[in-house]
Amino acid sequence: MARDFYEVLGVARDANPADIKKAYRRLAMEYHPDRNNGDHGAAERFKEVAEAYEVLRHAEKRASYDRFGHAGAGASGGFSGMPFDLSEALSIFMRDFGGMGGFDAIFGGGQRAQREQRRGQDVRVTVRLTLRDVVDGVTRTIKLKALETCGACKGSGAKAGSTPRRCATCGGVGEVRRAQQSLLGQLISVGPCPTCHGEGTVVDDPCGTCRGDGRVRGEQHVDVEVPPGVEHGNYLTLRGRGQAGPRGGPSGDLHVVLEVEPDERFERHGTALVHDLAVSFTQAALGADIDVPTPDGSASVTIPPGMQSGGVLTVRGQGLPPLRGGRRGDLHVRVQVWTPTRLTGEQRDLLARLRNIEGEPPSGEGTGRRFWDRVREAFGA
Question: I need a labelling partner for 344 at 20 to 30 A (CA). Which of 45, 118, 191, 335 fits?
Fold first, then answer.
């Protein structure tokens, strides 16, 4: 089972972004593979801290993680089940700290940093779901229009029969370093190469199809598996299914935001559902068997004689499943005694006779409290 991300980084749950970044940098420096001679344990720890940082540094992902744990973060595989690999962890490290002066010296110096290919943009789409979809889970096929790898040049950007050449300015690294003397000594600044714009290669004879970009506009169909128990606002992350990166760069991610359509028959409270049932005075007083809607169809509930308005009846197992699996929640039927607004002459006469023989309604302190106690009891509060 994956560890808590706050525990992984060693920060409090209310840590600010600066503290999270500082904690990640310290741990990433400690466990970076280049400092640990390829030690497998260090590499796994490096991946773990990178994954935790990548979730907690994003306000939206962090809020989802705080609410739903690993299942809501789009991490640890998240909904998509994609593993978090070492190359991705290294990419995150280089993205945020690879341009620091003196970076090579941290890992022993002498080795030139490898250029980082530009990553494609993430894509965000919305999928609408019904309450029935939430119960069973569903697979939806999304038609996605996005940039994809050019088939003519295989993403290189170079015309068929030619290849990109190494940039002479940066030697293929994709970055240039400039040294400047100051009162504190020599300062080294690192920036993208102005000739190749950080790619490390130059295309002299660009592909006619993509004009040297390595990407063309295309359309693809993506199957999205939505698990049971999701809620409105949850999202799924499909790694590598977004826009293709330029000139063979890695693809971005596809973020699928889930919108659960309201169902006028129910109120949702986590895995519990609430249905308001209107009953007549005679049904409440004498009792009755009444069918109520459920996500699966309908179920019969028994109104006991003397049922009070606001009383709650529970149908076990007719709510919604939890996101991580387990027993379904319950359906709570909230009884509302219906008072007719128009009466026939016969109804008026009968009610007038009943008024003369019925007893006084109960009164006194605590009546309202007993009602809310029943409501809280029904929801397990």
Answer: 335
